[in-house]
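Predict the 3D structure for this chain.
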Amino acid sequence: MSGINNDWEFLVQCYSPHLVQRLGEISTGYDMHFYAVDAIHEGFSDDFRFNTWFGNGVTDESVVFSIGQELLSLFNGACNILFKDHHKIEIEDIWFKGLARRPFGNLFLRDVRLTEGDVNAGDCYKNEHIEGLKNSQIFTLVHLSKSRDDVFHLLKAFASDPDWTRLSTILEAVERFSNNNQIAIAVDARKKKSFAHTANNFLVLGMSARHGHLNFDPPAQPMGLVDAQQFIKAIVKEYLSEVCRLFLEGVPHA
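Done. Predicted structure below.
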């Protein structure tokens, strides 16, 4: 038996098949269960899928589509934070009982925020799900996003590569989360100053800057966008890793 009791499947496009193969080995929770179907191409399967217990009891294809998109958004955000070069995974098709549904592009995407209350499964499976999370920080973060706003917003912020304005907001948010939850993070003061002077400076970034044309001298050595993304990502990763550790050790969240 399994906590996933439905016939929906999400076929996914993945430009890093070895990642999905590894996910299949460690994906023991029920928020997202990845697996490969035997379709071998150049030594590995090229048919990757996932299913979820959020599909239990759901019959509306647009709702299922929206659930899958939301889960992948959270998943991609977690991977983008945890891994240096994550290639975004996207839904290629939706199947039900082994058959493709209506043309994929015709499905209506709804706004969904998945919570614990959306899980339609018995308590025994919920306990089994929590036990399985110990194998993966990725799926622990996806799980925690159901109940913690800090985790949810940070994962969504990195679902795609953030620009300068988004990076500035992320830094302010993670510093606030750190203070509110008493989770210490290390922020390099020199890099933070370089980041802020670059992000705020219209003379350097033009319309990509956080502020309009102010009387700020440009920094002598502006920080590049890739370096800025890695700088903020490292801070967020440190914070979320500690959130995961505390959760898996049973420390209650205030």
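The two ends are 34 Å apart (CA to CA).
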